[in-house]
Amino acid sequence: MNTTTLNHVLGEQLIDVRQAALMFNLPSYWLSQAKERKQRRIPHYRVGKLVRFKPAELEAWIVGQQASGEESADA
Questions:
Q1: In the chain, where are the structural domains located?
Q2: pLDDT, tens digit, for every residue of 47-63?
């Protein structure tokens, strides 16, 4: 299956840790370490031994984190 077909099936291109960290200005260890991903509930995909992310899901996660932080500050 070529990359174009794979992206069509997935609906969106998957990005790696480095790309995600740069794109969303996140610490790369949050994305690369399983313990951090689990603790922070960061949406990700395992492709063999590789970790990949969907940009739209990361963006939604960040918005959700900001919203929950604002709720905590208001309480």
A1: 3-74
A2: 999 999 999 999 999 99
